[in-house]
Design a protein that fits this description.
13 strands, Jelly Rolls, 188 residues, mainly beta, globular, 6-stranded antiparallel beta sheet
């Protein structure tokens, strides 16, 4: 069972090297995940907005990324990917959700999505903090914000994927390296 932290900054971990960052296609606009499973979320009432949520697309990256992760971060992980978050329709949020295929995610934002883009953690009224995988909530009516962090930029951070979370106020590309962990990590 996951512990009940929302996120942890991991400043002791090394930043991705320039040679790896230089291989990113910042103009890519992927439409389909090829790592993990995720449908297209719909917001039913998010601060008055109803419609498609901000889109998160995880993609496999170059083989050198896997190698660098194994040599510099950890040898024990489920998979690693590059996540593109784009707001095509002025949606205010990705919608509150728990992840489908993992309990923890180690991330490094290459681009944060804008100066106010925030990773927010929620608790649904009358429900436990730690939820089942694949839970999606399209309305904020019964949600209470329990934690959040703008960005962060320039640091790895570990997030608990079994607590409802969303990315809010994305106005530009939010692009991050992600390392997925099934039920535990070297830091939990």
């Amino acid at each position: 069972m996951p512990t009940e932290f929302t996120y942890k900054l991991m400043p002791e971990l090394p930043a991705p090297p320039d040679w790896l960052l230089n291989q990113i296609d910042y103009n890519a606009q992927p439409e389909v995940n090829n790592i993990g499973a995720m449908g297209r979320r719909v917001l039913t009432d998010w601060d008055g907005y109803a419609g498609p949520a901000t889109k998160n697309i995880r993609r496999a990256f170059v083989d050198e990324y896997d190698t660098w992760i194994r040599e510099n971060i950890t040898k024990d992980f489920q998979n690693c990917s590059l996540m593109y978050c784009r707001n095509y329709n002025d949606a205010p949020s990705t919608g509150a959700h728990t992840d489908y295929t993992r309990d923890y995610i180690l991330m490094y934002n290459v681009q944060t999505g804008g100066p106010d883009a925030e990773l927010v953690f929620w608790q649904e009224e009358g429900k436990p903090l730690i939820r089942e995988r694949g839970c999606e909530i399209g309305t904020k009516a019964n949600l209470k914000k329990i934690d959040g962090i703008v960005g962060p930029a320039g640091v790895w951070y570990l997030a608990n994927g079994r607590i409802l979370h969303s990315t809010e106020k994305v106005i530009d590309l939010r692009l991050n390296f992600q390392i997925s962990f099934d039920t535990s990590t070297p830091w939990t």
